[in-house]
Amino acid sequence: MQKIPATVVTGFLGAGKTTLIRHMLENANGKRIALIINEFGDLGVDGDILKGCGDETCAEDDIMELSNGCICCTVADDFVPTMEALLARENKPDHIVIETSGLALPQPLIRAFNWPEISTKVTVDGVVTVVDGKAVSEGVFAHNVAAVDAQRKLDENLDHETPLSELFEDQVACADMIVVNKSDLLGEAEADALVTTLKADSRDGVQVVRTSMGKLPVDVLLGQGIGAEGDLDARHEVHHHHHDHDDDHHHDDDDDHHHHHEHEHSHDEFQSFVVTRGEITDPKAFAEQVADVIRTHDILRLKGFAAVDGKPLRLTLQAVGPRVDTYFDRPFGAEPRETRLVVIGQSGLDQAAIETALQA
Question: I want to staple 186 with a disulfide (CB 3.0 to 4.6 A). Which of 33, 179, 191, 246 is the partner?
Answer without folding.
Answer: 191
